[in-house]
Amino acid sequence: EVQLVESGGGLVKPGGSLRLSCAASGFTFRTYSMNWVRQAPGKGLEWVSSIGSRSSSIYYADSVKGRFTISRDNAQNSLYLQMNSLRAEDTAVYYCAREGEQQLVQAFDIWGQGTMVTVSS
Amino acid sequence: QSVLTQPPSASGTPGQRVTISCSGSSSNIGNNYVYWYQQLPGTAPKLLIYRNDQRPSGVPDRFSGSKSGTSASLAISGLRSEDEADYYCAAWDDRLSGRVFGGGTKLTVL
Lengths: 121, 110
Fold this sequence. Notes:
The structure holds 2 protein chains of 2 kinds.
Chain A: E1 3-7, E2 10-12, E3 18-25, E4 34-39, E5 45-51, E6 58-60, E7 68-73, E8 78-83, E9 92-99, E10 108-111, E11 115-119
Parallel strand pairs in A: 2-11
Antiparallel strand pairs in A: 1-3, 3-8, 4-5, 4-9, 5-6, 7-8, 9-10, 9-11
Chain B: E1 9-12, E2 18-23, E3 34-39, E4 46-49, E5 63-68, E6 71-76, E7 85-93, E8 98-101, E9 105-109
Parallel strand pairs in B: 1-9
Antiparallel strand pairs in B: 2-6, 3-4, 3-7, 5-6, 7-8, 7-9
């Protein structure tokens, strides 16, 4: 079964750091681009970051640029998001999402269940 | 404020046809594909439409997408109670060098 499972969320104080992980299974992880998308409580979806299959192409939303770092370990079938200098407005459910291949390129065709990050003192 | 503009809500009765609009600009919808996602209450989003008007396998043909210029639309025909969800449009934005989502449309089946 194709699956993405996020972990690492929790409660952190403003200015603190947190590292999210996304474990992939059921597909050849190393051939797919991956993304992080977040959703603040009661709000819409916001794309956060993307990384190419070989980590050669990395993009960030302006709202997290300079504070968040996306990375991956293809040997471990894992995606990461290092979040530094966290702010209250970073409070959200963070989803990892696979970007499809061929005709589905740029489509987020597989999503994890999400992990909650709460930034509060 | 989202880069792509959607109506916050839409509604219809069972069996009806409803459409949800998504308005953007030349840097996103006007020059790139549009994607639609469905988010049922309490669940992760699900890909509904890709490349403007293509349905992934398993998505009923009641769902259809279209694009014209800098706007796109999602149509749902034969509305069912299980279609009650939030719907989001998305596209790549050349100016921002990133993905952008619409603010989402909450569909209520009356």
